[in-house]
Amino acid sequence: MASTPMDVDEPSLSTIAPALNITRTLGVNVPPTTKVKDVVAKFRPTKLFPRDDVKDVNPQPYILSIDFDDPGELCMTSESDETIQIYNVKEGRHDKTLLSKKYGVKLAKFTHSQGGIIYASTKQNDAIRYLATGDNSFIRYFEGHEAVVTNLALHPGSDNFVSCSLDNTVRLWNLGTKQWTAKLLLQNPTLAAWDPSGTIFAIGCPGTASILLYDYRNYEKGPFTIIDVLRVWQPAEPEHAFKGWTALHFSNNGKHILLGCQNGGHLLLDAFDGSLKAVLKRSVGGRAKRLAPGETEGGNAESSGDCCFSPDGRFVLGGGNMDLAVWDTQSSPNEKGVLEPEYLLGDRRETAVVEYNPRFNMLTTADQELLFWLPDNQN
């Protein structure tokens, strides 16, 4: 299929963002994939990536999302100055800048094919764009949403993905065609996630304080489970159930669902029956000043999520206005169902976006600058 030239309002993209000719061979500087429990307390900030090209811009752009490619060797950010930044993990360096000045960019995700990216627009229309970074051209536009896209979730093993929008729809797509394959009419769907097998997808709807679980093979029959988040919060803090939802994740071991919340703590839920396993709170530090997806008050920019699971599913890592919190899901909560962090990893910067590399013991955090973390094996 013919490609559509990338929208660029600079004289020449080739001088700014040449093709991603990156050797995908892991270097010796990447730590071995030892068990997470043996290294999680040893993570230290290792490499900070300031944006020298915007050092005179005030305010500095915000990092909106972070993603890793399937081999775990590339890290990508989407940023509020309408750029995509690519970083080489194995060499710990910035690699490329891609521009989307005409339509804006957020929620950038690697596809499973090498060099493929999808991302949501922030200007002019609400299309999702499929970019081939090899020649910096658009392969396809996914059009249909009539309001802001709040979340993109790529299927773990195929070329399908789910999008949520403020037009009160969830749409299912296949990268091979521009037409959506299914449309679900829901109230205020803002978050989506796939289980590790790719047979179930979850939709978070803060407007109704519910998480809907669908069988991907029979989604037309409606959700097979509805998790009532309001019931989970009651009687202690029901006011937190309807707003401030920042992230939705399944653990890779399939046992838990994580609902990131700006107020009252993150919720660790049983993936099978939706029951509350623990409220993940931290007594030290507050939340980062970011907008929850779909909200317009309470922060200075959106974020793809301030918490995530470790690849083994045991630990949850969460940001805030200071230090990186690590909760051990195998620990027992107190009598109120609250679980405090097992570790606080020292860093005084604000952390609004958190992602753990799915292939290696390496993680990234960000607010206005990207930070790589590696285990300090000398301690």
From TrEMBL:
Q: Which UniProt keywords apply?
A: Nucleus, Repeat, WD repeat
Give the UniProt record's GO annotations in the biological process aspect. RNA metabolic process
Output the PANTHER family linked to this UniProt entry. WD REPEAT-CONTAINING PROTEIN 82, WD40 REPEAT PROTEIN SWD2
Task: Write down what this protein is called.
Answer: WD40-repeat-containing domain protein
Please list the residue ranges covered by the WD repeats: 142-183
What family does the Swiss-Prot or TrEMBL record give for this protein? Belongs to the WD repeat SWD2 family.
**Transmembrane parts of this sequence:** none
Recorded GO MF terms: chromatin binding
Methyltransferase among the record's keywords?
no
Q: Which organism is it from?
A: Lasiosphaeris hirsuta
Could you read off the lineage of the organism from its UniProt record? Eukaryota, Fungi, Dikarya, Ascomycota, Pezizomycotina
Q: Can you list the GO cellular component terms from the UniProt entry? A: Set1C/COMPASS complex
Task: Give the matching SMART domains.
Answer: WD40
Top-rank taxon of the source lineage equals Eukaryota
| Family matches, as InterPro entries | Swd2/WDR82, WD40/YVTN_repeat-like_dom_sf, WD40_repeat_dom_sf, WD40_rpt
Coarse class of the primary localization is: nucleus
- Name where it's found: Nucleus
